Amino acid sequence: MVLWLARSRLSHQFGVRIGAVDALRRSLLWAPSPSPSNPTPTPSSHPRRGDRCGGRVFGDRRPLCSAPSVGSSDEGEDPRDNRVLDFPGGKVTFIAEMRFLSESPVERVNCYRVLDDDGQTISGCKFQEVSKEVALKMYNDMVTLQVMDTIFYEAQRQGRISFYLTSIGEEAINIASAAALSLDDIVLPQYREPGVLLWRGFTLQEFANQCFGNKSDYGKGRQMPIHYGSNQLNYFTVSSPIATQLPHAAGAAYSLKMEKKNACVITYFGDGGTSEGDFHAALNFAAVMEVPVIFFCRNNGWAISTPTTEQFRSDGAVIRGQAYGMRSIRVDGNDALAVYSAVHAAREMAISECRPILVEALTYRVGHHSTSDDSTKYRPIHEIEHWRTARDPISRYRKWIERNGWWCDATESELRSQVRKELLQAIQVAERVEKPPLSDLFTDVYDRVPSNLIEQEKSLRETVKKHPGDYPPDVPV
Amino acid sequence: MLGVARRKIACESIPAAILGQALQRIRPLGSILPRNYSNGAKEMMVREALNSALDEEMSADPKVFLMGEEVGEYQGAYKITKGLLEKYGPDRVLDTPITEAGFTGIGVGAAYHGLRPIVEFMTFNFSMQAIDHIINSAAKTNYMSAGQISVPIVFRGPNGAAAGVGAQHSQCYAAWYAHVPGLKVLSPYSAEDARGLLKAAIRDPDPVVFLENELLYGESFPVSAEVLDSSFCLPIGKAKIEREGKHVTITAFSKMVGYALKAAEILSKEGISAEVINLRSIRPLDRATINASVRKTNRLVTVEEGFPQHGVGAEICMSVVEESFEYLDAPVERISGADVPMPYAANLERLAVPQVEDIVRAAKRACYRSVPMAATA
Q: Where along the chain is composition biased (Pro residues) (chain A) (predicted)?
């Protein structure tokens, strides 16, 4: 009956003879009831070329192309559509037509910003106030980080250390996020966050010691440069594999939750790190376990030579937070005040509501990936220079503190020369300090040194004694 | 619920044999307690031994917690964690989503901050998806952080071949994990081993890989009162001489210990007295006990289920060559699984795994009752 009706209506509308089979096929595709107010439908099952997606083509149903995201209401919707289905996972409203979520949103997620390019607070902005003391310490540390990076990079180029990795362009992220945390908050870094350590009190000498792998290095010379770690400052030792720190962070946060401590975990990673399986597992788990952790993504546009366009097709990292049921925010990573405010708020939410938060800071990696990379090979020099100068987070923030009357040119040059002097001094000292002793080769493999390693050490010492010429003279036995 | 286990254990339906065995092993709660015999000797299944060890350690230290797939509501894929969710609650027994890499990383992170997780892998075959976290995040961290970060974590689960589960569910990982400095690797055989070694592993400040065996879970062993005591603990790094002998040393671990003991029985009827060493600890290997035994018997047969190349037997042989070469009266014989991915068909599987007869023949070769393998090369 319906079939006959459909066929007759369709034939009448189109003025075209269609066979019974065609009519049957069409009636199965969608329930036909074209209303007279609508334009003449076509017999094809594809929308007419030139139809804008979402436009009415056939009756009052949408065409089978990509539709705007779910949530946009449709006028004249059939009231039968407001029914609810019960499935594992909860209730869902069903609709009787197919709607695909668009692969890209109409508008990208907005970015939170407080200071404009001239270092002026944007009118109507809301941010977490900082005292003059904190504001100046932030600036101080941002400059120190920048100078430290420059000098250590040069030291590597001179062959004095084997490797280095800079955070140029990401000073605001480093320092401002650290400033918004307390010393009790646990930090699990990737490797481009030495500023957090700096904020917490790691000295330039301690940085240098690690890079030179000398006796005073807290890592006992076991790791490559920039793999800093400090128990005291609650900064977990840098580990090279990408994104492994993310599930660690979720686990450490779980531990904090069990302790009911007034502290959270923060973990940093780049845009590239979001491709790792560990990213998925960590965010998913953290949301399910409801643990106090801040996932801080430094989206600096590049993963060595891979630009974000080749890394993912999503709207950055922030959009994924919602997919995991996690509250998230996107901030201007070169705006120190915005980063400070966002992390401050995230921390409060993480601790008081015991939930994970995702913060995506948009920024630019001004330096090469590391001393093993020459980024001019895959990106234009003028782009790098633009971000180094016009979009520099430090000069922008400096304008703000100058406007507040807290800074001037004289103090600027004083600070920079002071830091530079200290650094060169630290390098000279670190270079001359002895390397770690031979016994440090065998300790810490296990909690207590096992017998086989005690034997090996003994036999190694005997060999060194027997053949002193084969053994470097500056390494203590 | 079995549907979930089904997905992990085999792609299609669980072979009837396994299902039958599994159903037989799902016993009512009452039998968790060891049965008493009139002569006073108690017997305990390996499964019960592991369960009681977990229970006692969780009770003693509130930092100890379990995580893994199906460990909670399902009572454990092999029922090792039965009753623990009910007793300790969801904060201490975590049912994880299916991501070995994820939950291993999370466990390691929790251990970094001072908790003592016990991470269960449904089988160690799946641990390969998490092996970066086991090696790079757990094993090496105390060293790389120069003692600042310790990782008191235990990774446990069934290892090696079960019955009819094919290549991706049958590999032995003893050699893989024992290769890595920073890890301790244990493999129990009896109920006593299971209890004592698991307790030692949980109490140990270093990361421990604890390799169980699915087919041993249902086997019962006599246990003394000392073993049943909650403070019972076995030292890590000490092997046990299961059977003393004079003519040939046979080393084995896990299920192969049972096979070695059977082989020793057969050999004794032919006048060969075999000394069977249950390694218990793969890393650190008890080289002292092994070498002392070889110095006594002068002949060695190593037995393991895993693939031959770079296996545990190769390391034991080298240790003996390094320390007791002059004492060897015959080349060292090595019995291992076949150098092929484990086939599924029952007849092929039987041929791919060491059998008691293989051990008997190897011991005879070592005793010059027949020509040694090395001599035929």
A: 33-44
